[in-house]
Structure formats: structure tokens, C-alpha cells
Design a protein that fits this description.
The chain has eleven helices and eleven strands. About 30% of the residues lie in helices and about 15% in strands. By secondary structure, the protein is an alpha/beta fold. It has a nine-stranded mixed β-sheet, sandwiched between helices. Strands 10-11 form a two-stranded antiparallel sheet. The chain has a single domain, classed as Rossmann fold. The site of S-adenosylmethionine (SAM) has 23 residues, from helix 2 and strand 4. S-adenosylmethionine (SAM) binds next to helix 2 and strand 4.
Length: about 350
């Protein structure tokens, strides 16, 4: 299997992608890019570790029928069920054999999913623990179900993990070619600096190539980061807001005329001991944190998305922060539809 680095995203001053490269590993390359969007409607998609459904929603926005979703956390199941018509199953995906039996019944053409990432994340512990096992479970479920296309999302750090390398190897041994990239949501239609790793694997088909997908992403990425105001226009009644920093060497006050920092799973009030930071865009005394709803809008969920009544506020905050921004999901799904179908 050849390893190729295809193209560097060179995006200048706004380019979060400038140091990132697209990685392909494949047995062959062939074929021009095709418009396969109309065929998205026939490709059956199953979402694993579905959470609130940000990735599902992105695929649906392109016209893919998402036919089932799986998660093991009750607030995620409740939220997902409130917002989608297709089935969502409460299921521990560590039970790989049971999962394969259940998911195979749907005959998915595409499996998508974001196995939990805390063990890889800079916010979490560095040791590859139980959550990393879920990446292995994802790969085992995929090879057991044998879909044509796989899309896995995770934090960039996951790419360097042993668990991910094993998962990649397992997919390759079962005939999947693969494509890896780190994308920044603010260049993919969401007003937020959020870098995420995407691994697309597929069973090679005549006339199409992962090179086309790599080229599609390079061409489709925006050259300018989307700001909160660009996306939300006059929806917010504020110009600046507070987002609690990980430590006080970082700022906590942001303007809506820039992309939001990464929406995380917790949302803290302004603490009395926050003294301000030289890079704050406004005095801290004049700002408030964003609400759960406002944060969900920055994650590009629609205004009509239902986060309650079933979930506690902290659960909703977690669901919002865990999600793939729907527009980022759409960006990736559009690439798959345009080049692999
Ligand atoms: C990063 S979130 C996924 C976010 C989702 N892709 C989205 O866009 O909204 C990971 C999800 O995996 C679920 N999860 C964790 N362990 C699991 C397990 N053993 N089986 C099934 N789901 C699990 C969590 O409940 C969580 O909702």
C-alpha cells in the first residue's frame, strides 16, 4: 500500500490549514471527479456514537438518508430521538459482535461516527484508555458490517495514537483505502475555530479515487475564517461574550467579529477572580457567557433544534460541545457525495 501526501492547504493569513496536510493511503488512483450528489439519496447511512446528531445532520443536509443511529448515553438518545425520525438505539458499542449483528440488519452503505475522544484530547488524560478502545470497536464493527464508505471523526491528537494506527491497519487489511485530514470548522461553514481529524475509508471502485476527495476538500475550503457575525448576522444581542479559558494565561472575552473559540462540553459563568486579559476584546464586567442555545447555533444546529425537555442543562451543554458542527459534517458529506458516489 502506497503512502502519499497529496497537497498542502496553503491558505495564507486566514488559513488554519496551512500546516496541515492531506494524507492518502491507497492501492491505486484513477478517474475524474464526478457529480454524485444525486446518488447520495440512495446511500444508506448509519451513525455510531451519534450524540446529539451533529454529524448525522450534516449528512442529511447533503441528502443522504441516515437510517439509524447508536449511542449508549440516555440524554444523547433522548435528544437525538426528539430531532430525527429514524431509529436511534441505546447500545453499548463495546459489545462488538452484538453491534455487528444489529447494524448489519440495516445493510449500511456508509458508516459514520465519532468515537469518544477524551483519552486523546488535550483536555483529557494522555493515556490511551477505555475511550480509545471505542476507536478499536468502531473499526471492528466497520469491518464486520462491510460498508463501502466509512467516515470517522476525532480530535487531531487521535491520529498519532497507537489505537488509531491499529484501527487504520485493520481497515486496510480488509480492503479499505483511506484518506486522512485535519479540518478547521471555521473554513468549512461553521463560525468556530475547531480542528477535527477526519478519516475517510472506502472500498475502491472503478472510475473514482480518493485523490478526487482530497482535491475536492482543498478546493472547497474557504480562504477566510467565518466569524460569528457572518453566520448569525443580527441574531445575537451582544457584541462580545465570555468563554472560560483553560487557564488565565489565555483570554476569556471574544468578539462576534471573529470565529468563536472551540465550543466545549462545559459552559462556565464569569468567575469573580477573572481579572481580564490584555487580548480581551471588551472589559469582562460588560460581558456574559453564551447560552446553551447560542452555543448550539455556533455549532450550526438549526434554530428549531430541541435540546430539552429530557436533558439536564449540563447534559445539553455536553451534547452541544461534543457535536461535530453540522456544517462541518455537511462539508465532509458533500465531498463524499461529489467524489465517491
Ligand atoms: C464525541 S460524541 C459524538 C458526537 C456526534 N458525532 C455528534 O456529531 O453530535 C461521542 C458519543 O459516544 C457515546 N458513547 C460513549 N461510549 C459509548 C459506547 N460504549 N457505546 C455507544 N456510545 C458510546 C457518548 O455517549 C457520546 O454521545
Amino acid at each position: 500500500m502506497a503512502q502519499n501526501q497529496v497537497k498542502t492547504h496553503g491558505k495564507g493569513a486566514n488559513g488554519a490549514q496551512s500546516k496541515e496536510q492531506i494524507h492518502l493511503s491507497f492501492g491505486h488512483q484513477r478517474g475524474p471527479r464526478k457529480d454524485g450528489c444525486q446518488r447520495a439519496g440512495q446511500a444508506r447511512v448509519v451513525d455510531l456514537f451519534a450524540g446529539a446528531g451533529g454529524l448525522s445532520l450534516g449528512f442529511e443536509r447533503v441528502g443522504f438518508p441516515v437510517i439509524a443511529a447508536y449511542d449508549c448515553w440516555r440524554p444523547a438518545i433522548d435528544c437525538y430521538r426528539l430531532n430525527f425520525e429514524h431509529a436511534v438505539h441505546k447500545f453499548d458499542l463495546l459489545n462488538v459482535n452484538e453491534a455487528i449483528d444489529h447494524i448489519s440488519g440495516y445493510k449500511p452503505d456508509i458508516i459514520i461516527g465519532g468515537p469518544p475522544c477524551q483519552d486523546f484530547s488535550s483536555a483529557g488524560k494522555r493515556r490511551e484508555g477505555k475511550n480509545a478502545d471505542l476507536t478499536s470497536a468502531f473499526a471492528s464493527i466497520v469491518v464486520g458490517c462491510n460498508p463501502k464508505i466509512v467516515v470517522m471523526e476525532n480530535v487531531p491528537r487521535a491520529r498519532a495514537s497507537g489505537t488509531f494506527r491499529n484501527a487504520h491497519r485493520k481497515l486496510a487489511q480488509h480492503g479499505y483505502d483511506s484518506f486522512q485530514t485535519v479540518l478547521d470548522a471555521s473554513l468549512c461553514g461553521a463560525p468556530q475555530i475547531r480542528k477535527r481529524f477526519f478519516h475517510v475509508a472506502w472500498k475502491p471502485d472503478s472510475g473514482r479515487s480518493l485523490h478526487d476527495l482530497a482535491e475536492y476538500f482543498c478546493a472547497a475550503l474557504s480562504t477566510k475564517r467565518l466569524t460569528v457575525r457572518d453566520y448569525m448576522e443580527d441574531e445575537l444581542d451582544i457584541e462580545h461574550y465570555y468563554r472560560h479559558p483553560r487557564n488565565y494565561s489565555r483570554r476569556g472575552v471574544f468578539s462576534i467579529d471573529e470565529p468563536s473559540p472551540t465550543i466545549r462540553g462545559v459552559n462556565r459563568p464569569v468567575p469573580p477572580n477573572y481579572r481580564g486579559h490584555p487580548l480581551d476584546t471588551a472589559p469582562v464586567a460588560s460581558v456574559r457567557p453564551l447560552t446553551t442555545y447560542e452555543r448550539s447555533r455556533i455549532q450550526t444546529f438549526p434554530k428549531s433544534w430541541k435540546w430539552k425537555p429530557h436533558s439536564a442543562k449540563t447534559d445539553s451543554e455536553q451534547l452541544v460541545g461534543n457535536a461535530v458542527p453540522a456544517e462541518m459534517g455537511r462539508f465532509v458529506a458533500q465531498g463524499v457525495a461529489q467524489t465517491l458516489l
